[in-house]
């Protein structure tokens, strides 16, 4: 079967689940699947998931595509990934996402409650699929079925803010660990270590607020410094955002941010030889987005 043009596929994926093609009884089978998932999560002391239109749409589109194109994989023949499908359907770009798929060949169609329960049992018996179902970082859920020619495809989709991998850090602890990590990188580059600076941390905090509210860092950097801060000769900023980070900043998050500055820099990523001091600020949004700004400053040591 010829694949539909991408624009048409995206348009279909954006439709609410009630308008998308689905199996007869798809709504109540979806509710059954949600109940089975939430029963498993409740047994593990986890919060229940809720149905999400974007996740349902992404699941329905992939189930139908696998049936129509006769393939069985998370990545479609055109390279489309589970995350691509969720974002195309209007999902949160900062969320942690996951997908489970299953197929039954030679099963009776259309699928019924017994088939949905069998798919759920199979996923729970598979460590990787079970991990998605029982992830504490997921809050939302989608499910869809597509059947024909003696085959039934099932897709589960998941999304949420993620969960912290490690102990959450206070603002001061996050700044201390960021300074330690940056200084390790500077030492490896043959540069002198930096010292912590409260004025630079205040500048980083103001720059972070500007980035979150206006989508960009300020252009006039020296206006970010406190009015009584004197002796600064150079000032530069670095910013980064991570998705699926949960509700706390961890050491792993900071290591990822610092590494992104190193790998993505076209010039000195940590202030260069002129920098003498360091400031740092972070913010975690409920969507799973973690944002950070570092300020690197050079100070006239005679002052």
From TrEMBL:
Keyword hit for Signal: yes
Gene3D superfamilies assigned? CAP
This protein is called what? SCP domain-containing protein
Source domain of life? Bacteria
Q: So which residues are the signal peptide here?
A: 1-20
| Keywords assigned by UniProt, alphabetized | Signal
Q: Where is the SCP domain?
A: 34-158
Q: Which InterPro entries match?
A: CAP_dom, CAP_sf
What Pfam families is this protein classified in?
CAP
Q: Which residues form a coiled coil?
A: none
